[in-house]
Lrp/AsnC family transcriptional regulator
Amino acid sequence: MSAPGRVELDDIDRQIVAILHENARIPNVELAREVGVSPSTCLARVRSLRERGVIVRYTAEINPVALGFTLQALVSVRIRPGARHLMEQISDELRREPEVAQLFFLGGTEDFLIHVRVRDSEHVRQFVLKNLSANPAVALTETNLVFEHHTALSAGLRAVI
């Protein structure tokens, strides 16, 4: 029995998902050849994966360094207990900031983890001062610099495809 929301994939679906994860721009003919099906079957499979919500979108991975963002940081944020009602508003405001690459709403000691891409250490300092320290709802921030950042299919997800 499958969990709610879980989509069953066969071996061909898993191969398609793995290949598209690595290269979403692969031509359908080449994708079909790699998984061993006809191009029309492959196209129908990809369409089905989209319809079933397995493939949500196609995106380009941008090199932030090429755009001048040479530093990445993770900023953890704790909201004051009396300001918990503002968390959705704070989250909305943070998501609109151009430096924010990812925003995680957490359960635990910290309330948010913000992945920012910035030009340099002064830029991250200004981001924290302007968007967090100046906000009376914010009780605490902690900034950690990212030395290396790798995006990959997680081991858990790789195990099911």
Summary: DSSP finds six helices and four strands in the chain. The longest helix spans residues 39-51. The CA atoms of residues 14 and 161 lie 4 Å apart. The chain has a mean pLDDT of 91.
